Amino acid sequence: MGYLNGFKVTFARLFEDRVTTEFPAEKRPKPVRFHGRHVLNRHEDGMEKCIGCELCAGVCPAKCIHVRGADNPLDDPVSPGERYGFVYEINYLRCIHCDMCVEACPTEAITESKILEFSFTNRDDAIYTKQELVVDDEGRPRHQPWELWMEGEDEHLSGWMRATAPSGAAAFEGRVGWSGDLGHGVRPPEEGQTAADEFEGAEETEAAT
Amino acid sequence: MSDATRVYRSPPREGSPVSDPTEAPPDDGVKITIDGREFTAHKGELLIAAAERAGTYIPHFCYHSRMSPVGMCRMCLVEVDSGRGPGLQPSCMVPVSDGMVVDTESETTKRAQEGILELLLINHPLDCPVCDKGGECPLQDQAVAFGPGESRFVEEKRHYEKPIPISDLVNLDRERCILCDRCTRFAREVAGDPLISFTERGNRTQVLTFPDDPFSSYFSGNTVQICPVGALTAAPYRFRARPWDLDQVESTCTTCSVGCRIAVQSSGDQIVRRLGVDIDPVNHGWLCDRGRFDYESAYSPERITDPLMRGRAGDSELIEATWPAAMAATAETLREAIDAHGASSVAVLGGARLTNEDAYTWSKLARTVIGTDNIDSQLADGLAAEMVLTLPRATIDEACSADTVIMFGVDPKEELPVLHLRLRHAVVEDKVPMIEFSPVETSLSRHCRSVRHLPGALTESVSELLASEGERIGSGSVVVVVGRGSLAGSGEDIEAAVAAIRQAIPHATFLPALRRGNVMGALQMGLSPGILPGGLAFSEADRLGEDWAGSQPVVSDEPGLDAAGILAAAAAGRVAVLILLGADPLADVPDRDLAERALAGAGTVVAVDTHLTVSARRAHVVLPASGPGEKAGTTTNLEGRISRLGPKVTPPGTARPDWMIAVELADRLGVDMGFADSRRIWDEISTVVPMFSDCPVERIESPEAQDGILCRPAGDGDLRWDPPAAVAAPPVDAYALRLVSSRKLYDQATMTANSPSLAGLAEESRVRLNPRELDRLGVTDGGRLAFVSPRTRIIATVSGDEKVPRGVMAMTFNAAGPAASELIELGTVVTEVRVETL
Question: In chain A, which residues have their Cβ closer than 8 Å to the Cβ of B235?
Answer without folding.
Answer: none
